Amino acid sequence: MSSPLPAPAPHESRREQTVRVTRPRTGFRYLDTVLEQPGAVLAFAHRGGAFHPGLEGLENTMAAFQHAVGLGYGYLETDVHATRDGVLLAFHDAVLDRVTGSTGTVSAMRYADVADALIGGREQIPRFADLLECFPTARFNIDLKSESAIEPLAALVRRRGDEDRVCVASFSERRLRDFRRHMGPAVATAVGPVAVALARLAPTATLARRMVRSPGVALQIPHRRGPFPVVTAELVRRAHDTGRHVHVWTVDDPHEMHELLDLGVDGVMTDRTDVLREVLIERGQWMGVPS
Question: Fewer CB within 10 Å, N or C, the chain?
Answer without folding.
Answer: N
